[in-house]
């Protein structure tokens, strides 16, 4: 069977040891999407792989496809950005791990989305450069949901269309993908997440701002907590699974 050499830029989402000397690496590439490869001798080969095949690293990888297996063979990796601060600080490590876990669950092989790759690199760079952690994670997820086609409806009640002008918070319904006002959320479903008008407006504004302007938004601790609770519930309900890294971000 013929094997063809390829190359791509890639962000490493997950790495595990395989046998005594190999590593299995899963990354996200702009045109290919999720890609899993084996790096033979990675634990021994200083020249080709040392300190490169690490979680979060931005790389250019050279790899070979052609086996019947979906696993490619990674032949070489060049380090473009190590994002070293993400590994040096526990809370930034936890946040970056959450981004990687979300992409691992949300994306597929042979289904690249260049904008999604750019979004991931933007979030990694922001976290690496010291941006507010929860805010960056929230903004990443708001933009991610857009790209996945699960943009939540955050501009008024999805039931009656009215903007909430009472002091009561909205309720966010994961199953309907949007906000409900107090009148429309008759039954208090356990799955409804309360969301204040202020936080709803912030998140809605984040949906419409281009990425380079997102730093203008400022989330208070209370808003960040509300938004995180909503996003955690929404992702878990859509994916029908627990996301383990949430506990590292809170
Ligand atoms: Zn309503």
How would you portray this structure in words?
By secondary structure, the chain is α+β, with helices and mostly antiparallel strands. It has 2 domains: 79 residues, Beta Barrel (OB fold (Dihydrolipoamide Acetyltransferase, E2P)); 157 residues, de novo design (two linked rop proteins) (Up-down Bundle), CATH 1.20.1440.120. Helices cover 35% and strands 23% of the residues. The chain contains 7 helices and 8 strands. The strands form 2 sheets. The protein has a 5-stranded mixed barrel with strand order 1-2-3-5-4. The protein has a 3-stranded antiparallel beta sheet with strand order 7-6-8. Strand 1 and strand 2 form a beta hairpin. Helix 6 packs across helix 7. It is elongated, with a radius of gyration of 20 Å. The termini are far apart. The relative contact order is 0.12. The mean pLDDT is 92. The chain binds zinc ion. Zinc ion binds next to loops.
Key terms:
2 domains, 250 residues, alpha+beta, 23% strand, de novo design (two linked rop proteins), OB fold (Dihydrolipoamide Acetyltransferase, E2P), elongated, binds zinc ion, five-stranded mixed beta barrel, three-stranded antiparallel β-sheet, 35% helix
Secondary-structure map with pairings?
Layout lengths: L3 E15 L3 E8 L3 E7 L6 H4 L8 E8 L6 E10 L2 H5 L1 H17 L7 H15 L4 H16 L21 E4 L4 E3 L12 E3 L1 H12 L12 H19 L11
Parallel strand pairs: 3-5
Antiparallel strand pairs: 1-2, 1-4, 2-3, 4-5, 6-7, 6-8
Helix pairs in contact: 3-4, 3-5, 4-5, 5-7, 6-7
Bound molecules: zinc ion (ZN).
């Amino acid at each position: 069977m013929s094997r063809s050499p390829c190359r791509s830029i890639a962000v490493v989402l997950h790495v595990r040891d395989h046998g005594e000397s190999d590593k299995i690496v899963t990354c996200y590439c702009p045109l290919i999407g999720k890609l899993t490869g084996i790096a033979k001798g990675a634990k021994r080969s200083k020249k080709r792989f040392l300190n490169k095949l690490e979680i979060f690293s931005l790389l250019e990888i050279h790899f070979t496809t052609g086996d019947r297996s979906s696993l490619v063979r990674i032949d070489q990796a060049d380090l473009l950005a190590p994002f070293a601060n993400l590994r040096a600080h526990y809370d930034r490590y936890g946040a970056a791990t959450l981004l990687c876990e979300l992409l691992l669950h949300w994306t597929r092989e042979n289904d690249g989305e260049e904008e999604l790759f750019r979004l991931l690199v933007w979030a990694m760079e922001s976290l690496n450069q010291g941006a507010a952690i929860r805010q960056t994670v929230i903004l990443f997820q708001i933009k991610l949901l857009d790209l996945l086609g699960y943009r939540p409806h955050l501009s008024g009640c999805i039931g009656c269309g009215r903007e909430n002008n009472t002091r009561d918070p909205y309720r966010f319904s994961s199953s309907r993908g949007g906000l409900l006002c107090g009148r429309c959320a008759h039954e208090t479903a356990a799955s409804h997440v309360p969301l204040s008008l202020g936080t709803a407006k912030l998140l809605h504004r984040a949906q419409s701002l281009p990425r380079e302007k997102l730093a203008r938004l400022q989330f208070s601790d209370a808003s960040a907590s509300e938004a995180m609770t909503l996003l955690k519930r929404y992702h878990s309900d859509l994916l029908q699974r627990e996301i383990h890294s949430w506990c590292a971000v809170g």
